[in-house]
Amino acid sequence: MERGKLVVEKVGGRSTLTRCFSKYPFKFIVPNKAGSSQADAVWIYTITYGGGIVSGDSMACDVTVGDGATAVLTTQSSTKVYKSVGSNCSQQKMEASIGKDALLVVIPDPVTCFSTAKYSQIQNFKVVPESSLLLVDWITSGRHQRGEKWAFSHYKSTNHILLQGSETLFLDTTLLEHGRDGSISERLQDYQVIAMIVLLGPKLKLIQSQIQENVKELMSQQLRLPSISAGCSSESGGCFRLPKPSFLASCSTFGPKGTGVVIRVASMTTESVYNFLQDQLASLETLLGAAPYR
Amino acid sequence: MECGGEANDDKDKSSSSGSLRLWSQWQLLDSILPTGGFAHSFGLEAAMQARLVISPEDLRTYVIHVLENTGSLLLPFVYATAMSPDKQTWHKLDRLLNAMLTNEVGRKASTAQGSALMRVAASVFSETPSLKMMRSEALSSGAVSFHHAPVFGLVCGLLGFEAKTIQRAYMFVTMRDVISAATRLNLVGPLGAAVLQHQVAPIAEDLSTKWMNRAVEEACQTCPLLDTVQGCHSYLFSRLFCS
């Protein structure tokens, strides 16, 4: 099966798309002017024919960002994964290589798996110490308006950052699957969106510290010591309880000397995550020519 | 006519070493072992302050989710070192787990508990000198984080416990510690905690069976909400626990 290919390299001092090959069922769109022409970045939109991933679809793509170049991978709308037929599992696989002083920004809309869908994605990133990477990987519970909340069968997402071909810097595999001892929605309670944001590398240093500060401030306001009445049962009623925070986030560093930052988010609305991403990533406008998630 | 005598002696020896192993097993699973497990709440304290866990019913659900996530993410690491309790396997798995425990709070807790367990095991089980050797080597190299799950598998593997037992035991100590944290957080009383522990046991057994004997390539997290909430622990203004 042929794989899609994207190569962004510095040509004549500017980041340039030198190779672009896509194969059904996906396609790349590269607008000439995605943002201000002063910024040196190539924006690439991935779209799927039919607007979604159909049962059994399998897509693979290799992305190379050459030394000093900047590439942005994004989508036009949320990636919908349709219901699975039989035991078919849809798959997406991306192998990315980021060079020295290069920046890869992966800022898709969320994945939305419909009822009974089965989906797995693997994203491998090969980096060197001077590479920078911004990765957003997120999923919503489904078509909430239809009452589909975490009604899909299987979702698995693996993100792997490999340093200099041998050292695993970061590896996260999230698996959401109905189990005997509880459904997915039980594990996620009232939260409808989960997101993971990874920031790595010298070009994102400033934004890393800003986000850590912002999340700490946001969350400190949300977390309260349980009051004396917190232990009372629901039958007795009349206990005043603060509701659960509708937006939860936490930051952690990873890698030697904390070169990377990962933010995990759980939210009751998709909108609040879009707002969070807009706000936190706004300062990237100068680097990328346009602000992510506008 | 005493040809049965030697065979009986061997049987006696192996049954007595098996019995001795039981005493070691019980000591390892006893909460009185000074491994500092009491300092960690597995994200329960943060979950309470975020109002995700309020009632005893919430607690029961929370314990089950912690067990599920422990099974899916950590049991493969316990299994791997239990099956090959040697230096190379241990170091490799320790490094890998360090990259997979992406929540800083959980990562530090794992290191703290693993170091304590290794230290205690090296002192207590002196008849297994490789424990002490591996520990001092690892300490001087500075390249080992002493994550809890691989250390647990390593220690139990070197002591000759069976792999299934070791994995089940890891789930047991996790359950024991979360429920113990719940009593100190006043979420449930000591008697209620004991009742809860027994009620959850069949589910813990199911989860152990489901997640045991898997390769580390299959390790994954199944409760991302838990990871998010535990990561909030460092934002708590007032806290009882380290994690």
Automatic annotation (TrEMBL), chain A:
GO molecular function: nickel cation binding
Keywords linked to the UniProt accession: Chaperone
A Pfam family recorded for this sequence: UreD
InterPro entries given in the database record: UreD
Membrane-crossing segments per the record: none
Family assignment from sequence similarity: Belongs to the UreD family.
HAMAP family on file: UreD (MF_01384)
The name this protein goes by in its record: Urease accessory protein D
Organism listed in the record: Sesamum alatum
Organism placement in taxonomy: Eukaryota, Viridiplantae, Streptophyta, Embryophyta, Tracheophyta
From TrEMBL, chain B:
Keywords assigned: Chaperone, Nickel insertion
Residues of the signal peptide: none
InterPro entries reported for this sequence: UreF, UreF_sf
Transmembrane segment boundaries: none
Keyword Calcium applies: no
Protein family: Belongs to the UreF family.
Name of the protein: Urease accessory protein F
Phylogenetic classification of the source organism: Eukaryota, Viridiplantae, Streptophyta, Embryophyta, Tracheophyta
